Q: What sequence folds into this?
C-alpha cells in the first residue's frame, strides 16, 4: 500500500467546497531530463545516472504547470537516487506546486543510480491509495490507484506506465481492466505505450466503463509529436470539457491535460 502524504500539513479531514470541474495532467517526466532530439538519448546518456542543474530547473518549470491542476499523474519520476541528487521528485513537485497530497510508487531500482516511480499529486484528500505491480516478464512496472469521495459517488484514479512489448502490455491491460471493473466514475491516466486508435486499448474499453477518447492527441516525441501513447481515459458519465497538450516540453513526452466534470465531486483541500 502506498502511504498518503501531505505536502504542507493540511488536515486531511477538512472539507471544502468542491469545484465545478477538475483539471487533470499526466506527464512522463524522464526523471527530470530534457530531450529535444533523438540523438540526445545518446549524447545526454549520462543524465540517466547523474544529477545536474538542468534537471532542477526543468522540475521548477514543471511545477509552475502542475500548480494549474487538481490531479497530476507522473511517470518515470525518480524516487531518490544518484541521478536526481537523491531527491524524491514527486514530493518536490508537490511542495513546489502547492499540492497538499502526494503518493509515489517506486517500481524499478538500479542500485543507487536510478529509482523510477509513478506519482500522484492531488488537491483532494484520497480515501485510499494502493499500489500494484503489473505483470510482465521483466519486473518494474506498476499501477498506482487512488479513491476519492464516498463509495457510491466517488472517483477512482489509476496512474500507470506500461511496458514497451505488446505481449506484456496485453497482460497489463487485462490486469488493469480487472482492477477497474465496477468502480463507477473512473480515470486511467499515464504513459500506456500504445496508440489510439488501435486494438490494444479495446481490451480495457470492452471490460470497463472507460470510453474511447473523441480525439487522441500525439505526445511523443515531444519535439515532433506523432504518436498518441499518453492517455487520460474517463468512464461513461464523466464529461470531458477540454483535452489538450500544454505547449511546454519537459522530457521526451509532451504533457497531456483534460478538464472534466463529474456529477458529484470529492472535497477539495
A:
Amino acid at each position: 500500500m502506498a502511504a498518503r502524504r501531505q505536502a504542507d500539513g493540511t488536515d486531511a479531514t477538512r472539507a471544502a467546497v468542491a469545484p465545478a470541474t477538475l483539471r487533470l495532467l499526466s506527464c512522463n517526466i524522464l526523471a527530470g531530463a530534457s530531450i529535444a532530439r533523438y540523438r540526445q538519448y545518446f549524447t545526454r546518456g549520462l543524465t540517466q545516472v547523474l544529477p545536474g542543474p538542468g534537471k532542477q530547473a526543468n522540475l521548477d518549470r514543471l511545477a509552475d504547470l502542475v500548480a494549474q491542476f487538481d490531479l497530476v499523474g507522473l511517470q518515470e519520476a525518480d524516487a531518490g537516487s544518484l541521478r536526481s541528487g537523491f531527491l524524491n521528485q514527486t514530493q518536490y513537485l508537490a511542495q513546489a506546486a502547492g499540492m497538499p497530497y502526494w503518493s509515489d510508487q517506486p517500481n524499478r531500482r538500479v542500485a543507487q543510480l536510478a529509482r523510477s516511480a509513478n506519482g500522484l499529486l492531488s488537491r483532494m484528500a484520497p480515501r485510499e491509495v494502493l499500489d500494484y505491480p503489473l505483470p510482465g516478464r521483466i519486473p518494474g512496472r506498476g499501477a498506482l490507484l487512488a479513491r476519492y469521495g464516498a463509495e457510491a459517488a466517488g472517483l477512482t484514479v489509476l496512474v500507470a506506465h506500461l511496458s514497451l512489448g505488446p505481449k506484456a502490455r496485453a497482460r497489463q491491460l487485462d490486469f488493469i481492466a480487472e482492477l477497474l471493473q465496477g468502480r463507477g466514475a473512473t480515470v486511467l491516466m499515464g504513459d500506456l505505450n500504445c496508440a489510439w486508435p488501435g486494438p490494444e486499448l479495446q481490451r480495457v474499453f470492452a471490460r470497463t466503463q472507460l470510453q474511447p477518447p473523441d480525439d487522441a492527441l500525439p505526445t511523443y516525441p515531444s519535439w515532433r509529436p506523432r504518436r498518441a501513447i499518453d492517455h487520460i481515459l474517463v468512464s461513461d458519465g464523466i464529461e470531458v470539457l477540454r483535452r489538450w497538450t500544454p505547449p511546454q516540453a519537459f522530457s521526451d513526452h509532451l504533457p497531456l491535460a483534460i478538464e472534466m466534470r463529474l456529477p458529484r465531486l470529492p472535497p477539495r483541500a
Q: What stands out?
A: The longest strand covers residues 101-110. The two ends are 22 Å apart (CA to CA). The mean pLDDT is 87. The CA atoms of residues 32 and 57 lie 9 Å apart.
